[in-house]
Amino acid sequence: MFYARNLFEGIPLRDRDVFIWNTFIRGYSDKGPCKEAIVVYKKMHQNGVLPDRYTFPFVIRSCGVLSALREGKEVHCNVIKHGFDANGFVQSSLVAMYSRNGEISSSEMVFSEIVDKDVVTWTSLIAGYVQNGWFMEGLDGFRRMVGLCIQPNAVTLVSILPACAVLNLLSLGEMIHGLGIKLGVDSDVSFINTLISTYGKCSVDGNDENVNRARSLFDKMVVRDIVSWNAMIAVYEQNKLGSDAIKLFRRMLDENLDFDYITLVSVISACAQSGDFKNGEWARHLVTSKGLENSSSITNALIDMYTKSGSIDLARDVFDRLPERTVVSWTAIIYACAVNGHGNDALEMFSRMLKDKVKPNSFTFIAALTACKHSGLVEEGRKYYKSMNEDYSIVPSVEHCACMVDLLGRAGLLTEAFEFIENMPVEPDAGVWGALLSACSTYENVELAERVAEHLFKLDPHSETYYVLLSKIYAQAGTPEKAARFRKLMKDRDLRKTPGHSSVEIYLRSHKFPSGSQSHPSGESETSKVYGNPLQVVSGT
């Protein structure tokens, strides 16, 4: 673009027609920096050259890439002013631009005004829905497009597959894979990359069949780009196959392939979850040699790794070296202090964050409440819980409430914890009731434990954890026969352990939250109905 600009500026103003201006704008739109495309567009106006239907798609796309909503709206006004608001290519660009800026209603409005909707138009809408987390709407848009006999292309399939991954719709993902083969796009690199990610994210309950399918796709690729390698390394990391992730990364280096910050985030996270801190230090050295020390994603991954290893001083060293600290960085270090027993340090970090004029978010408060519960800071916990709503208009979520119940329960305030649950602003889930049941076990409160268990067995009758806790409570209370019956029920019902997840950890690594509920609409699980209430079974009633 440097040479292109020199040539452009050497052309006399009178000889710069709309074709030359469009070519120059397109160059910046395609090659970057996109902001220059907008600057050149404005100069084109100032020089009295009228844009045509080829000008606007490039300028609008640049506004989308830059999340420049104000400029995008100004260009939209010019589109209407110059009479191109009915042009299909321009309209499709507007749909994509508004979607990239999170303006879904504006995107839908432009889409509804398009008379002849082609695959590009539909793909812009579908991609907008999925990119903004409107996964069901994206799937519905895909269904409507196919229902109108509009054949999707590779970009359409790449746009819809992430919705299948997030919603764990493996069968639909497989169908789209088959459709890609039928349409002849199964050699498209972006399509295969997205399939690798989709199969990897749909691998659950320790079943590595889909991980193997992802690896098979990766191995069969004739041409792989850096996204291909990143996708496969991330699949291993997300499925707790850290050693495989590191092994593949080493192969990548052996083949003299370049890597980026996304690669290193997955590798560092793999080291963290596998406990391979020797390779973690090696990865940090690569970060330095690559000049990526200031990447917030990498520093958050490093803080997470040192948090898991208990190396709080190293976590703080990474944090202190940051030239700019975002709310994500502050949340990471607060959480690191919290889970390593440095509650007061965590709250001190929270205060420093406020002094730096950084506004806490929902996850920051979870980190602060975690610090309070691990360090027994009841009054501080009450203060932060109250502050999040009153000072920051953050409505407490289930996890905030679970932290408070755990905090009160650990302090022996069982009655207050029970009353807190009854007055929660959201419906309590198994995690909330489970925190109180754990406290009942600690303080040997059988009567309250049975009341809590009634709720738990309706919400999550599959979890082994609650049976173990209640069995322990009965044994402590001198009723070993009930404890033995619970252990027998666990064996008869083939119960499973429920894996624990911290939303702060998920947030720091930019992973999606699980969505959906397996419980019955009434709040009582179907399995509970089939097997019966465990308390009644044990009591013989």
From TrEMBL:
PANTHER family: PENTATRICOPEPTIDE REPEAT-CONTAINING PROTEIN, REPEAT-CONTAINING PROTEIN, PUTATIVE-RELATED. Keywords: Repeat. Residues 511-541 are annotated as: Disordered. One of its GO terms (biological process) is RNA modification. Transmembrane segments: none annotated. It comes from the Eukaryota. This is Pentatricopeptide repeat-containing protein. InterPro entries: E_motif, PPR_At4g14850-like_plant, PPR_rpt, TPR-like_helical_dom_sf. It comes from Papaver nudicaule (Iceland poppy). Residues 515-541 have a biased composition (Polar residues). GO terms for molecular function: RNA binding. PPR repeats lie at residues 17-51, 118-152, 225-259, 326-360. Belongs to the PPR family. PCMP-E subfamily.
